[in-house]
């Protein structure tokens, strides 16, 4: 008697299902390119009935992307202005017959389902951060964007016939966009395939990555000036140092009180503390690794040349506090800039881990840095919480906050032809104040605004443009295609509006971009931020004013012109 097993005996039920549906294999084209993590928590997932809610017919829908294993992601979300909620799909409704399937839930990096909250603990255990990205299919009709290595094949025969292509576009969360954009890049770009574990072994830069961050530029307006400067020396000059100082001695635990990590960006970690020498001040440290070859948080480290303009802009905007003709305290106050070298101090590593435990950091563990790592440390004034988290008393308070933002931008324009270019609500900080008024000087004229109990501070000049002396510093976004395909919030329209305004020449001075961000800010104040007393009469009266401003704002050509209309 032949007691050998039949040929397909090794197959599990998922494999058998694929055999019956070869088109699923066709759809499974992206599998090689996703950064998939290996979550072997099948028991938990199998026990979650929420995972069974999509009909079998959805499998034929091109908007469902096979993310590997037996999970599918809905690429086409109806509600375009919210963050990712990948729909999870089981291929088989006969789950429990699938004994010990080796293909358990592989997750598409960057996608964390809100539909399956029970999974969140497993995600934590796995060490993956929750990232909010949703990938959509959108037609590129009328678009001149060339897509290279688009991993999503067009499976619509009609589109194939007309020669139109589909591509993945982005629906990003409002506010901080760099992280989610980066997640998308890692997922969809074939040359960037990194492991999903949090502390990845350091990886060298790819050409694409180097090109991507080389956007920061400084050009001399007078072309006869052709200085060859050492950016390292310039950085040291701004730091008032002759050489880098040791990280662990410059920021030793004994010098810092009540230290904690308060935030993070793609480029750095942000801590808060009170200096032992001056405990009445609260200082924020923004720690940015530079010049190293390893990717940090998936990004190429900035060079001296790329960090220099940010130091200059931060310093100059901060110095506007004491400017004779155009002054404001609306740009974050910078106490000091330091160039430090060496491993992260132990106490900061511990605080990093505490933050990670509570909030799940999306960044790489800073224990990855070695003895020769260089960092720029910006010591800033603590300026409160960002607008997305702040609760205003009522629209009167937010109406005056808006005026603070307008006057701050106006002063920046007049002093340095400043355009912020990324003024989303995560970059507007708000804190309470006892002061009744805030003073400005605009073109020599003194102005005073009621605070209504709050003070606003503008941060993050990564995309900003200024003219300082003979030099124009800006960030060249002309080749940054992904940012302009993002959607999900009015914020992402603003990047496209700026590009049109500037004719994609990012060195040009176009203060209208500040007005565009004002139109975004007022939209958020009308419908986005939180209010304590939204039913009061004063709230309704001022909401009407905000709405009137929203209608009119795009007629102004600059924040300065807008500020003058308030006088
Ligand atoms: N002066 C400050 N006071 C209070 N909080 C701050 C201050 N500076 C930064 N933060 C907090 O740290 C977070 C990250 O800071 P920041 O935006 O400057 O980093 P980033 O690396 O430029 O971020 P990304 O490049 O990802 O947008 C902010 O969103 C804010 O919550």
TrEMBL record:
One of its GO terms (cellular component) is cytoplasm. It catalyses: L-threonyl-[protein] + ATP = O-phospho-L-threonyl-[protein] + ADP + H(+); L-seryl-[protein] + ATP = O-phospho-L-seryl-[protein] + ADP + H(+). Residues 256-567 form the Protein kinase domain. Its EC number is 2.7.11.1. GO terms for molecular function: ATP binding; histone H3T3 kinase activity. It is found in: Chromosome; Cytoplasm, Cytoskeleton, Spindle; Nucleus. Its cofactor is Mg(2+). Keywords: ATP-binding, Chromosome, Cytoplasm, Cytoskeleton, Kinase, Nucleotide-binding, Nucleus, Phosphoprotein, Serine/threonine-protein kinase, Transferase. It is an enzyme of class 2 (transferase). GO terms for biological process: intracellular signal transduction; mitotic cell cycle; regulation of cell cycle process. Its main location: nucleus. The keyword Methyltransferase does not apply. Pfam families: Haspin_kinase (PF12330). ATP binds at residue 286. InterPro entries: GSG2_C, Kinase-like_dom_sf, Prot_kinase_dom, Protein_kinase_ATP_BS. This is non-specific serine/threonine protein kinase. It comes from Drosophila albomicans (Fruit fly). The lineage of its organism: Eukaryota, Metazoa, Ecdysozoa, Arthropoda, Hexapoda.
């Amino acid at each position: 008697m032949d007691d050998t097993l039949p040929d397909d005996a090794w197959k599990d039920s998922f494999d058998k299902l694929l055999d019956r549906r070869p088109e699923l294999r066709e759809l499974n084209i992206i599998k090689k390119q996703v950064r998939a993590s290996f979550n072997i928590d099948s028991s938990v997932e199998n026990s979650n009935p929420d995972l069974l809610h999509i009909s079998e017919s959805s499998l034929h829908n091109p908007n469902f992307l096979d993310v590997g294993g037996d999970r599918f992601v809905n690429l086409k979300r109806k509600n375009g202005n919210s963050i990712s909620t990948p729909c999870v799909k089981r291929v088989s409704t006969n789950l429990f017959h699938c004994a010990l399937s080796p293909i358990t839930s592989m997750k598409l990096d960057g996608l964390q389902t809100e539909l399956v909250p029970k999974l969140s603990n497993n995600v934590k255990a796995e060490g993956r951060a929750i990232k909010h990205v949703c990938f959509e299919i959108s037609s590129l009709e009328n678009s001149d964007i060339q897509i290279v290595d688009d991993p999503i094949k067009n499976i619509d025969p009609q589109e194939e016939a007309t020669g139109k292509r589909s591509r993945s576009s982005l629906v990003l969360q409002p506010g901080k966009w760099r992280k989610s954009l980066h997640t998308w890049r890692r997922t969809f770009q074939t040359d960037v395939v990194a492991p999903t574990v949090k502390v990845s072994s350091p990886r060298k830069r790819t050409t694409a990555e180097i090109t991507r961050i080389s956007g920061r530029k400084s050009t001399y307006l007078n072309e006869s000036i052709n200085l060859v400067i050492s950016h390292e020396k310039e950085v040291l000059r701004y730091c008032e140092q002759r050489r880098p100082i040791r990280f662990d001695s410059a920021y030793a635990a004994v010098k810092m009180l009540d230290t904690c990590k308060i935030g993070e960006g793609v480029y750095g970690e942000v801590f808060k503390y009170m200096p032992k020498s001056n405990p009445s001040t609260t200082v924020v440290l923004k720690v940015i690794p530079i010049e190293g070859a390893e990717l940090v948080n998936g990004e190429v480290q900035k060079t001296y040349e790329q960090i220099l303009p940010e130091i200059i802009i931060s310093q100059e905007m901060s110095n506007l506090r004491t400017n004779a003709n155009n002054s404001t305290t609306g740009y974050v106050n910078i106490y000091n800039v330091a160039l430090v070298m060496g491993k992260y101090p132990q106490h900061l590593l511990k605080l990093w881990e505490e933050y990670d435990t509570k909030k799940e950091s999306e960044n790489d563990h800073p224990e990855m840095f070695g003895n020769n790592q260089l960092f720029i440390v910006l010591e800033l004034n603590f300026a409160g919480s960002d607008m997305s988290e702040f609760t205003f008393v009522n629209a009167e308070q937010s109406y005056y906050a808006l005026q603070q933002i307008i006057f701050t931008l106006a002063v920046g324009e007049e002093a340095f032809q400043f355009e912020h270019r990324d003024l989303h609500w995560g970059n507007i900080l708000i804190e309470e104040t006892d002061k009744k008024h805030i003073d400005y000087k605009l073109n020599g004229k003194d102005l005073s605004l009621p605070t209504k109990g709050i003070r606003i501070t503008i941060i993050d000049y990564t995309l900003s443009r200024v003219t300082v002396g003979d030099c124009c510093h800006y960030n060249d976004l002309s080749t940054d295609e992904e940012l302009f395909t993002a959607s999900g919030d009015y914020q992402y329209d603003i990047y496209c509006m700026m590009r049109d305004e500037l004719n994609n020449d990012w060195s040009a001075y176009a203060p209208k971009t500040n007005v565009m961000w004002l139109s975004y800010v007022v939209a958020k104040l009308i419908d986005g931020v939180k209010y304590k007393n939204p039913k009061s009469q004063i709230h309704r009266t001022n909401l009407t004013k905000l709405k009137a401003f929203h209608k009119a704002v795009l007629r102004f050509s600059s924040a300065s012109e807008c500020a003058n209309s308030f006088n």
